[in-house]
């Protein structure tokens, strides 16, 4: 089928326009679709945004329902660092600054879950310089898990060794914190 | 300004090397999104804050080298003409977002164009690294080292639970988008790709055409990338992508063999018709160009055409984009004039090949 606008290229977009019950079938090529304004230039960017704000709206509407039942007025959550409100965030679909993550923290899990197939917690690279503490805390968690496993398996000698490692690491972490308070 | 070298050559130096599986995988890319800890994200930051980031990046990284990525060139968007920005977009060195929406944006580009660091795009930093062919692991390794190198000077926004904090919730966590650019003509001709895309999507990966609008794949070039960035490690993300790409390579090879065995004459006819069109047309649109280039490249890969180099697809795909054509002509051109210039450039380029 050829494009109804230019009659040159094949029609690749087909849709039906309904205005006051009058149906018109449209068959156009991409170029004409753009030129004649049938589709927007920023279709892709728009649809992604749409998709996102759709997610947020879903989130806020379910919140509203809860709110309605308890009749508590919704407080405006506002990031103290950059001034972005939760409402603005759901509207643009973007955080204003790193602190927004803390400010809106309670409401983010459902959003992250939907965007990241169920995940809410990071499991990847940790900054080298800034992350030494985090590295050690993660190591501590791993060691504690290992300890549980060793006790379960009744490998007490190894368990004692792991316990000492945990103690040393904990001392080290507490020591660092103490220093930080100075 | 040595920006000129980025402008004049359609094909980036790194593209001239052939990577593994380069008959199908054109390039592998790793992108990391990173932000400064104490400065609001570009969407909300004021002019002074964005200037601060520009100055910081310029002072610390301009003309610096890291590994074999030499002499990072610092280029501000505001200093570029529209056509120059368009050329950088067509070479995938910057994003359309940086070119169009980031007045206070800039980019650092390594001499071999393998690394580009976009500044003040949607995030403060978008680190991009390309490798020829199918080399996701190597690209990730270098991107990590690059990330550590940047971190020596920058405090990144990072949260123990959420990972690297980004402006858009779709990038939080690893901030990683790994993608592979693939030429899949046989899967497209046999219409198998349409049935494979939904399955790939179900694995949390995105398939889209590049150069084309929306989901249409111009020149049968597809980009496969991860969508999930939170809750999975970078290596897991890469491994998922790798296994799907491997499957696609396998299927594409099978489909090529099938076409060669069962529809050899039709295939040969298709390839040489396209070759003829490229060699002889006087007016050619970018869509037809892409289709013909894809056929010719398939012809080269399958041994039907022997006197043209494989990089022709990568090179002419970029060279025949509107921005590059206008950069070449040194003036802005109407679409009709572009089609004429495009045809003549292609003829010239193919003649160059044949004279060797």
TrEMBL record, chain A:
The keyword Transcription appears for this protein: no
Coiled coil (residue ranges): 137-164
GO molecular function: cadmium ion binding; cobalt ion binding; copper ion binding; zinc ion binding
Record lineage: Bacteria, Bacillati, Bacillota, Bacilli, Bacillales
Protein name, UniProt field: UvrB/UvrC motif-containing protein
GO biological process: stress response to cadmium ion; stress response to copper ion
Alphabetized UniProt keyword annotations: Coiled coil
UniProt source species: Aquibacillus koreensis
Keyword Coiled coil: yes
Chain ranges of the UVR domain: 137-172
Automatic annotation (TrEMBL), chain B:
GO cellular component, as recorded: extracellular space
Residue numbers binding ATP: 27-31, 92, 126, 177-181, 208-213
GO biological process: phosphocreatine biosynthetic process
Catalytic activity of the protein: L-arginyl-[protein] + ATP = N(omega)-phospho-L-arginyl-[protein] + ADP + H(+)
Gene Ontology molecular-function annotations: ATP binding; creatine kinase activity; protein arginine kinase activity
Enzyme Commission number: 2.7.14.1
The UniProt record lists the keyword Iron: no
Positions in coiled-coil regions: none
Activity regulation annotation text: Appears to be allosterically activated by the binding of pArg-containing polypeptides to the pArg-binding pocket localized in the C-terminal domain of McsB.
Ranges for domain Phosphagen kinase C-terminal: 24-255
Matches recorded under InterPro entries: Arg_Kinase, ATP-guanido_PTrfase, ATP-guanido_PTrfase_AS, ATP-guanido_PTrfase_cat, Gln_synth/guanido_kin_cat_dom
Residue interval(s) of motif RDXXRA motif of the pArg binding pocket involved in allosteric regulation: 338-343
Principal EC category: transferase
Keywords from the named record: Allosteric enzyme, ATP-binding, Kinase, Nucleotide-binding, Transferase
Entry function: Catalyzes the specific phosphorylation of arginine residues in a large number of proteins. Is part of the bacterial stress response system. Protein arginine phosphorylation has a physiologically important role and is involved in the regulation of many critical cellular processes, such as protein homeostasis, motility, competence, and stringent and stress responses, by regulating gene expression and protein activity.
Protein family membership: Belongs to the ATP:guanido phosphotransferase family.
PANTHER family given in the database record: ARGININE KINASE 1-RELATED, ARGININE OR CREATINE KINASE
Protein name per UniProt: Protein-arginine kinase
């Amino acid at each position: 089928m050829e494009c109804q606008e230019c009659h040159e290229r094949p029609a690749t977009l087909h849709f039906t326009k309904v205005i006051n019950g009058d149906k018109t079938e449209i068959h156009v090529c991409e170029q004409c679709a753009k030129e004649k304004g049938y589709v927007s230039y920023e279709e892709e960017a728009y649809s992604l945004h749409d998709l996102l704000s759709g997610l947020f709206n879903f989130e806020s509407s379910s919140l509203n329902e809860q709110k309605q039942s308890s009749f508590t007025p919704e407080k405006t959550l506002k990031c103290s660092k950059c001034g972005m409100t939760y409402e603005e965030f759901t509207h643009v679909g973007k955080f204003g600054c790193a602190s927004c993550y803390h400010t809106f923290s309670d409401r983010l899990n459902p959003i992250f879950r939907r965007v990241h197939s169920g995940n809410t917690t990071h499991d990847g690279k940790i900054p080298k310089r800034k992350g030494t503490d985090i590295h050690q805390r993660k190591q501590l968690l791993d060691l504690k898990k290992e300890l549980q496993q060793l006790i379960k398996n009744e490998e007490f000698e190894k368990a004692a060794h792991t316990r000492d490692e945990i103690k040393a690491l904990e001392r080290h972490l507490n020591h660092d914190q103490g220093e930080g308070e100075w | 300004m040595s920006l000129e070298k980025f402008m004049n050559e359609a094909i980036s130096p790194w593209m001239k090397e052939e990577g593994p599986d380069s008959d199908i995988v054109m390039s592998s890319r790793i992108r990391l999104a990173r932000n400064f800890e104490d400065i609001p994200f570009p969407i909300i930051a004021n002019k002074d804050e964005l200037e601060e980031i520009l100055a910081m990046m310029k002072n610390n990284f301009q003309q610096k080298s890291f590994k074999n990525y030499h002499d990072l060139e610092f280029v501000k968007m505001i200093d570029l003409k529209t056509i120059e920005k368009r050329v950088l977009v067509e070479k995938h060195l910057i994003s359309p977002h940086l070119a169009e929406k980031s007045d206070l944006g800039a980019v650092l580009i390594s001499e071999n164009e393998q690394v580009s660091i976009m500044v003040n795009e949607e995030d403060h930093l978008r680190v991009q690294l390309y490798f020829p062919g199918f080399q996701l692991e190597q690209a990730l390794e270098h991107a990590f080292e690059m990330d550590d190198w940047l971190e020596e000077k920058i405090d990144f926004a990072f949260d123990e639970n959420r990972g690297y904090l980004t402006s858009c919730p779709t990038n939080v966590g690893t901030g990683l988008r790994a993608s592979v650019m693939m030429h899949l003509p046989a899967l497209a001709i046999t219409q198998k790709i349409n049935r494979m895309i939904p399955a790939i999507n179900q694995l949390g990966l995105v398939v889209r055409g590049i150069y084309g609008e929306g989901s249409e794949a111009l020149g049968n070039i597809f980009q496969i990338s991860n969508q999930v960035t939170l809750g999975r490690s970078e290596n897991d993300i890469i491994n998922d992508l790798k296994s799907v790409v491997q499957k696609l390579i396998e299927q594409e090879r099978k489909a090529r063999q099938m076409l060669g065995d069962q529809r050899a004459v039709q295939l040969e006819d298709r390839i040489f018709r396209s070759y003829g069109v490229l060699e002889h047309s006087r007016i050619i649109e970018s869509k037809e160009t892409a289709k013909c280039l894809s056929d010719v490249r398939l012809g080269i890969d399958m041994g039907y055409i022997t006197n043209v180099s494989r990089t022709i697809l990568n090179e002419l795909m970029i060279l025949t984009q509107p921005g590059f054509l206008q950069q070449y002509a040194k003036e802005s051109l109407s679409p009709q004039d572009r089609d004429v210039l495009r045809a003549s450039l292609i003829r010239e380029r193919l003649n160059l090949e044949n004279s060797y």
